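User: I'm writing a short methods note and want a consistent example. For Glycerol-3-phosphate dehydrogenase [NAD(P)+], I'll paste the sequence; you return only the structure tokens, no commentary, since I'll be parsing the reply automatically.
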Amino acid sequence: MAKQYKVAIIGGGSFGTAIANIMADNGHDTCQWMRTAERVKEVNERHSNEVYLPGIKLNPSLRASCDLKETVSGCDAVFFSIPSKSSRDVAKQLADHLAPGTILVSTTKGIEFETNTLMSQVLREELPQVRLGVMSGPNLAKELAARMITGTVIASEDPDVNAVVQEILQCSYFRVYAGSDMYGVELAGALKNVYAITAGMAAALDCGHNTISMLVTRSLAEMSRYAVIKGADPLTFMGLAGVGDLFVTCTSPLSRNYRVGYELGKGRDLNEVVASLGQVAEGVNTLRLMKEQSEALDIYMPLVSGLYDIIYNGSKVSDVIGSMMCAEQSRDVEFVLK
Ligand SMILES: NC(=O)c1ccc[n+]([C@@H]2O[C@H](COP(=O)([O-])OP(=O)(O)OC[C@H]3O[C@@H](n4cnc5c(N)ncnc54)[C@H](O)[C@@H]3O)[C@@H](O)[C@H]2O)c1
Ligand SMILES: O=P(O)(O)OC[C@H](O)CO
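Assistant:
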């Protein structure tokens, strides 16, 4: 029989609940920390989290708690699934409760806005005692919670972290691949959200399949170009955390970032769209960061600039597309060509 671990998940939203449910399905002693007492009661008594995962029956062995110390005490591994905006605050709360050597896995696909810092770095700064990993891939929470076949990537500098996480999560519907390019895996997860907004907008404007295909492929080129300049391995972007996640997020209406783009494409106001979502769409802040970075580092990112101009400068979609199509002819796969 496979080893049973004591595990915790920090975050009571869609993804935290989906991951907690897998671990409970796998027979691990699983506790999920969430800040809302009403939601804790619902998970413990009705085995559901209707606000975030409507219609999903959770494993009855999954426990929830509002008590952070009790949740993580004695855990072998802790999964962190808090939106980037609040990650540092929650990490600070965890500081006194995580034993040295505990495995901590970030599943957050965002960047700290004020510092342009990835979550692994935020966690490293606040929780130096842990062994870190990041998990990312084409992982729509609703599909995972419905136990649809899914693959993901765990990346850590410590191969033991990868092996333990594979053992904890691997099951008949979830396949966990290992990687060592932690930076690339995490960056890919954050960047693809921006391009999903563009893809949602293109869908709202009834663009053809040729257009969507060009958009997604050039998105991959643009995010890879940025990531390579920042030190990531371009091959990471060919895997599940790169092209895999870009594909799912740019094509599925289950993606919140895609939905933001779709609603913007239908002419709705950004603030109104974000407020009505009721869940996080990390790409909105990541877009602003990428625009700043592309200017500061002089990286050619026409899709980021175009989307930024449409959302924040009131540019017309047709004008932005027109200027992109008339730009100087370029080479394909230039981000890997020397
Ligand atoms: N939903 C998905 O399909 C999915 C898949 C992979 C990764 N992710 C990433 O996981 C992260 C979390 O996403 P999600 O989908 O679970 O978001 P969500 O909006 O569904 O839920 C966010 C959760 O975080 C909690 N939270 C926010 N601020 C908090 C604070 N200060 N203290 C305590 N709790 C706080 C909220 O109460 C809520 O329970 C994001 O970075 C997202 O990109 C999401
Ligand atoms: O709903 P989104 O747009 O945050 O995307 C969810 C996941 O990241 C897809 O892998």
